[in-house]
Design brief:
The protein is an alpha+beta fold and 166 residues long. It folds into two domains: 5-101, NusG, N-terminal domain (Alpha-Beta Plaits, 2-Layer Sandwich), CATH 3.30.70.940; 106-164, Roll (SH3 type barrels). Helices cover 16% and strands 43% of the residues. The protein has helices at residues 16-25, 66-70, 90-101, and strands at 5-11, 29-31, 34-40, 45-51, 56-61, 75-78, 80-81, 84-85, 87-88, 118-121, 130-137, 141-148, 151-158, 162-164. The strands form four sheets. Strands 1, 2, 5, 6 and 9 form a five-stranded antiparallel sheet that branches. Strands 13-12-11-10-14 form a five-stranded antiparallel sheet, with no helix packed on it. A hairpin with a 2-residue loop joins strand 12 and strand 13 (151-158).
């Protein structure tokens, strides 16, 4: 059975959601990563979902559906390199999904972040490493000193990837 491949298509400005609707009607497998943002006008505030990547929609298609995608209203072109559409590895699509689904712990703001406290990395590529909090960098990031293989590493890491070690 032929295998589907992910591609990025460039669409007309501010038409990502319209293209996604068209793909729904034509049974094209797609992914439109949306991020929730607070929009503020002079008279009101409103939470809206807007594309993480403006003017791009990802499609997962068989080779036979290549031109079907191009014929969709508001689709401009595939993202290409040297005239060929660039396939996107499945793990990169999954990384975007993971990034969008990762939630900040609710108690992150309520915790007291002080230098000298022991912390443990609870998500990401350094999961399981423990170290000492050495610097607070704004509301969301900290610097941590980690002893590993006889060396001291200093990393900057988001607070939501850490928990305190008691």
């Amino acid at each position: 059975m032929p295998e589907k491949t992910w591609y990025a298509v460039y669409v007309k400005s501010r038409s990502e959601k319209k293209v996604a609707l068209e793909f729904d009607f034509t049974d094209v497998d797609y992914y439109l990563p949306l991020i929730k943002k607070l929009r503020v006008w002079s008279d009101r505030k409103k939470w809206i979902n807007e594309p993480l990547f403006r003017s791009y929609v990802f499609v997962n298609i068989l080779q036979k559906d290549y031109y079907k995608v191009l014929q969709t209203a508001n689709v401009v072109k595939y993202i290409t390199f040297e005239g060929m559409a660039v396939p996107i590895p499945e793990d990169q699509i999954e990384a975007i999904r993971y990034y969008l689904n990762e939630k900040d712990p609710e108690n992150i703001e309520n915790q007291v972040w002080e230098t000298g406290r022991k912390v443990k990395v609870v998500s990401g590529s350094m999961i399981g490493l423990e170290g000492e909090l050495i610097e607070i960098r704004g509301k969301k990031k900290v610097k941590v000193e980690i002893e590993a293989v006889g060396k001291t590493l200093i990393i900057q890491i988001p607070k939501n990837k850490l928990e305190f070690v008691l």
